[in-house]
Amino acid sequence: MNADRRRHSPPPVPGDVAPGHALRWLADGWKLFMKAPLVWAIQALVFFVIIAVLGVLPLLGWAAAPIALPVLVAGMLSGAQILDRGGVLRVSHLFDGIRRHAGNLLLVGGFHLLGALLAALIAAAIGGSAALTGMIVGSAPGAGVAAGGVMLGVLMFTVLWVLLMMALWFAPALVMLHEVAPLDAMLLSARACFHNLLAFIVLAALLYVSTWVAMIPFGLGMLVLIPVIAGALYAAWKETFAALLPALPPPSPDTSPAELKTP
């Protein structure tokens, strides 16, 4: 009954977040990482290996990795929640998304894949039609039309991709931690990002720089950055949504009451 009420209640208006809080989210992510650095690093390695293996599967690899991504992200968020509430992080918490909300999280991944394909098709249609028009016109004017169309196609793809990332940002947390329906979670995530656009622009810039820094030592820094991003996402979710949505379900079915403190 309570779960049905939670799923069908009207979505809340996302909370207001100051742009400077993006740095605090990353700091909170780092603090969560330092509570169990070895376990987090192993989780990040397993995360990377799974996505890499799915990505090279014959025929289906291009689709399997983006579909599986929200499931694994949700597992890392579950681990962040367990640590935040005083529990003990295990590598197995990476698979909490499979144990608890696999169907809905896979649907989020399916919407992710469909959104990426749609963005690519729209961009290709714009660029292809411009190139065809340029060939028909010929000479210098035709080349200009073709180049302009390709640039417009790239711009359109970038805009659609950013919108898709906004829809994905909070979706795993909303599905995993509050049992929001997949499409509702993606719409609510996009709404939250638009509502606090400056904060998420700052966060995106910080993550861009951090990713390049993490790649310098042969990519090993990603074993730290991936958990820190998971912790930052959890911190952003707490500030934006946690106080506005109903009480959380238990973080993990294999976490005993002795390991978990009430928040």
From TrEMBL:
UniProt keyword annotations, A-Z: Membrane, Transmembrane, Transmembrane helix
Signal peptide segment: none
Domain of life: Bacteria
Bilayer-spanning residue ranges: 38-57, 63-83, 104-126, 146-171, 192-209, 215-237
Keyword Transcription set for record: no
InterPro entries linked to this entry: BPSS1780-like
NCBIfam families: BPSS1780_fam
Name used for this protein in its record: Transmembrane protein
Species assigned in the record: Thauera terpenica 58Eu
